[in-house]
Write a structure and sequence with these properties.
232 residues; mainly alpha; two-stranded parallel ribbon; two-stranded antiparallel sheet; globular
């Protein structure tokens, strides 16, 4: 399933980024809006990533203890991602919230399939159609069998060009992530620094209005001399 994992990575990360940016430009957005979007609580993303790495570390732990530990780590990933999404959709537009919830819904569907089976079940038929030798296992994938539960939520959709099999949840994650990127490109961007600099230069070079500002000594103009001084 090594090729399947790399194919899924392209679909879940590369494809949403490309489609999202293209859709954002077509709909009138700009990349500056995406770059100007402020993200909150990024430490939750790092925590979710650490839990994900730990899942691979305990992959070879067999028995009930291994399944419980993997389930706990999986729950940690989803709880932290959910908390991060909730922290960042606050105050955003309704469209962006809907896109984020779509991606979250896809993640929850994947999580249910993994939680009930210990790993993500994949269809042997779909794997064969995608050119993947059936029966392979990875840290997160296992071939579906008679004892598999919610197998229809597993990786059952073949993607032959990428030699990968994906799930309904993967599709929702991909579409939701692309929509988030496209929507964020419509966020207002702050004034450009060069414009602010030009504005300050204009203020410094503004004509003298004759007023004496605090902290500045203004030499007396010749036409302000008193008659006594003119008369010598």
């Amino acid at each position: 399933m090594g090729t399947a994992v790399s194919g899924q990575a392209v679909l879940l990360f590369g494809f949403p980024a490309i489609v999202g940016v293209v859709a954002g430009y077509v709909s009138g957005g700009r990349l500056g809006g995406l770059l100007a979007t402020r993200l909150r609580a990024l430490w939750l993303v790092w925590l979710a990533g650490a839990a994900q790495v730990a899942e691979y570390a305990v992959d070879r732990l067999d028995g009930r203890a291994g399944q419980v530990l993997r389930s706990a780590l999986l729950a940690t990933v989803f709880v932290t991602v959910l908390a991060w999404l909730l922290a960042n959709v606050r105050g955003r537009s309704r469209v962006l919230k809907s896109a984020a919830l779509t991606a979250l819904g896809g993640g929850l569907l994947n999580g249910m399939a993994i939680a009930f089976n210990g790993r993500m079940p994949y269809s042997r038929t779909a794997a064969a159609a995608a050119g993947i030798p059936p029966g392979q296992e990875t840290a997160k994938n296992i071939a579906a069998g008679r004892g598999s539960r919610l197998a229809f939520l597993g990786d059952v959709i073949p993607v032959p060009p990428l030699h990968a099999v994906i799930s309904v949840g993967d599709i929702l994650i991909t579409l939701g992530a692309a929509a988030v990127i496209a929507t964020a490109m419509h966020q207002p961007t702050p004034p450009h620094t060069t414009e602010a600099r030009h504005g300050s230069n204009d203020q410094r070079t503004a004509p003298d209005d004759g007023a004496v500002h605090p902290g500045h000594l203004r030499p007396a103009a010749l036409h302000h001399r008193s008659p006594r001084m003119d008369g010598g």
